[in-house]
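Form 7-S
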Amino acid sequence: MRSRSNSSMPLFYFRIRTGRFSGASDTAFELADRDAAWVEMTKVCGDLVGSISRHLKQNAEWQMELLDESKKPLFRIRLVAETLD
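Output:
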């Protein structure tokens, strides 16, 4: 993943949401296109999910979103912990 340089590749941002907490990256990342952005998102999410799941509370949700240059969400991956009674 490369941060912004002077080329004309599209810019993308990551946003993490955990419960009421949310934060978008201030750093834009250049990726070739939406398909490349999806691949990068799944790699980053895969690297994080083990740690996230070990700290996830019951009946909680964690989300990662990939945003376009205008910070509109393009993709979302959700990890949901549910208590089933």
